[in-house]
Specification:
- With 75 residues, the chain is α+β, with helices and mostly antiparallel strands.
- The protein has a domain of 51 residues.
- Helices cover 29% and strands 17% of the residues.
- It contains 3 helices and 3 strands.
- The chain has a 3-stranded antiparallel β-sheet.
- Strand 1 and strand 2 form a beta hairpin.
- It is elongated.
- It starts with 14 loop residues before the first strand and ends with a helix.
- This is SPOR domain-containing protein.
Length: 75
Amino acid sequence: MALFKKRAAGKPGEWYYCLQHKKVEEGPECPAKDRFGPYTTRGEAEHAMETARERNLEWENDPKWHDPAARGDQE
């Protein structure tokens, strides 16, 4: 049995989006593995999933990612 409960690292005023509970938190309430952030505003944290989708789409459509020469592939 642990004597001290390990708290998640972070500061009040930092905003996170919890992936497990699908909610915004001020200061980390959930483990780092279950959250996106920190964000500087509540609004940024509220749009975390939308931001992630946009970044994933940009990454998937990045011509450098699909360029065999940039990856070192030989055709």
